[in-house]
Design a protein that fits this description.
Elements (H helix, E strand, L loop, with lengths): L2 H20 L5 H9 L4 H15 L4 E5 H4 L7 H5 L5 E6 L2 E7 L8 E4 L2 E2 L20 E7 L14 E6 L9 E11 L2 E18 L2 E24 L4 E2 L3 E25 L5 E29 L4 E30 L2 E36 L5 E3 L11 E29 L2 E26 L15 E4 L9 E3 L1 H9 L9 H6 L2 E18 L2 E22 L4 E25 L2 E12 L3 H4 L3 E6 L2 E6 L7 E13 L4 E13 L2 E5 L9 E9 L2 E14 L10 E20 L2 E7 L7 E10 L3 E10 L2 E4 L10 E3 L2 E13 L2 E8 L6 E5 L5 E6 L3 E9 L2
Family: Belongs to the TonB-dependent receptor family.
Subcellular location: Cell outer membrane
Keywords: Cell outer membrane, Membrane, Receptor, Signal, TonB box, Transmembrane, Transmembrane beta strand, Transport
Amino acid sequence: MKPNYRRTLLASAIALACSALSAPLLADTETDEIEHIEVRGQFGALSKALNRQRDAAGIVTVASTDEMGQFPDSNVSEALQRLAGLSVERDQGEGRFIRVRGLAPDYNSVTYNGTSLAAPEAGRRAVALDVIPSDLLESVEVNKTLTPDMAAGSLGGTVEIKSLSAFDRSNDFYSVTAEAGYNEQQSKTSPKVSGVFSKILDLGGETDSLGMAIAASFAERKFGSENVETGGSWDFEEGLEEFELRDYTISRERLGLALNLDYRPGSNNEYYLRSLYSRFSDNEQRQGLVVEFADPQWAGASGEAELLRSLKQREETQSITALVLGTRQTAGNWEWQLEGGASKADEDTPFNIGAADFEQAFDDGVGFSGSNILRLTAPADAFLAQSYTLKEVEMGDTYTKETERNIKFDLSHERIKGSASMQLKAGVKFSQREKTAAEDVWLFEDFADQGITALSMNDYASGVVDYSLSNLGPAVSSAAIYQLVAGLNRADFVDEVESQINDYQVDEDISAGYVMAQWQREHWQLVGGVRYEHEKRDAVGTRYDDSTELFSANRQSSSEGYWLPALVGRYNLAENSIVRAAFSTGLVRPNFEQLAPAFILERDDDELEAAFGNPDLKALTSNNFDLGIEHYADKLGVLSAMLFYKQIDNFIYEADLAGRGEYADFAKAETYVNGGSADLYGLELNAVHQLAGFDSWLDHLLLSANLTLTDSAADIEWFDDGSLLRREVALPSQSDKTANLSIGYETDSLSLRLAANYKSEYLAEVGDVSDAGYDVYADDHLQLDFSSKWTFSRGMQLYFNVINLNDEPYYAYTGRKPYNFQYEQYGRTVVLGVQITNW
């Protein structure tokens, strides 16, 4: 495409968006025109996303599939981290969960074409978005203001994943991508292939009435990481009690499939099917060396210690399936929509090595050096396989499944009088959610009594661990461990308590209804209404009393309703300037791990100790206030500033109830409780600017930057000698600063982009309720990524990406930075690929 033609096309798109601002609220024709404009490259992708963001009634951030393709991001969460107010939580260096405006992933909801996605992980509601390849999607929208027609389930925002439709493009479309990646921690090639195809067909005598879109993606990534961690085992007066060296070898596979059908027999009728299947397989092997000092000691000292060589190996598979079937009908000024949805997610970790431990004791000579990165100093025997003796092997088998089914009906009526329009809307929704978790644990020990003569680690060693942070010595063979336990009778080694106490089932039935109105006149647009949700919950877990060694079922039921009002408004100051304001209410139900009615009662030296879930927890609710202004450039660009404040009630945290109420005689009673209120407030700044008017290479530059500043406060309480004490903490996972900066350069044949993603330190977990010195903080994190594309022929691109260009590690500390909690490094990843598209 010629440069002047591309500029004309972009200007046309923005002009259409501007005209939509003054059109009636439901002007579908203008919207369709915008959606059908073909966009390419960085400039076009951003233009499309900004147009949709601009037209929204509330505060919405959009990432289109075209924009996601401009960054070297392999899954949905990594693509979203580029947007204002969003940050990512990583697992082994890969993006997994999304935080919205500083709120943890469990405080945000994820939907697929309006249907809530089930979460595969045990105990959580947060959806791990690394399960879903970004190739399968048309766009992702993050609604930061909640309206009554949106299902409850978030405090920070709702991540709406929209699948591709054939009607999103004006012509038949296909795209095929193939790539190979390389991680410097593992000298292996990681392949990926994906394809998208859409076609519009004639059906039943109607022209262009059936749309079909198919997408498929497969990727395998082989990489590794190196880790050293203390887990917070610090005595700040005497020194470190223990630490561990870890080396990970990881292979991950992602498979994604999507099929979407749209049938539009006329302008007033629409029938649609949306489907998604995504599977994520994570094969992980961890070689570890655990150092347990007899007495705490500081760096540079040496003394008595026990060393454990430990192996963990498991293959974990997560899958998410979603299906949405619906119809939308229009008759005059009336429109109704009937939709049914279902989602299933599971996590399966079959018979695996939880820990295979070999031990060796030293009377002296064991110590460490360093602070952030701890390095072991020890006698030579610490690194010899024949010096370790087999201690025990723990094996596990876990399975978690969550299902969500829903049906909803929406009815709307529009009235237009002069320059004003009013849409009245009401709807009902019924949903059922079920979460089950099952776990089996075996503890194999006393091997000599079982007639096992191979008790040296040398009998199970294979090769040497490639670990640059220190020295681990020989590797433990997972195949040899599986062979060892295969010769033993599993039934003789079942850990009865661990195999039952973590099993649970939670059923939730939710009935919801709402009424709302949308009014627009000249420069004004208002959306207001209220939603009511009633929840009935049944939960069953296991109770265990170690004094009687008896198990019993523990059942709990609850029923509660919530009113959720909202008022959202926007005012057009000028053709390109918009003021937005909103009041909304949010609701997040407790995690399943927090709700599960498991109860374990133990007696230790005549003292009672208990640990249990709390089915009586109340849902978190929030009052949300937003105020901001946006200014859109005549060409491509935006400047915006958004203030927000959230007052959160029933904040949940882990607490010890010993000494109060029915646990007055307990030495320990650990569970989850509702606190009082928490506050979160912040400022979100966003700027996008395409340089123009220089008549030089500068006209090919695109600058994009966003910054989110937040602060939060919540009170936690505990008892000390009968006195109720409290202290203030920040909300977990809330970074005070989150920022993105990218510099793009684009011509007809070349596209370059350098992106920086930053988040400041945040509270990862409360280490000790009564002592802030043991709180765990994740250090600030800055990652650079580079992407480049070369169009060497029409519709054919060659791309080269570098992920984690600056080799940024993950670091967490206990209380203060010198006290390591965890250090982990991942290395760089480079990707070379080709894409063929029928533009």
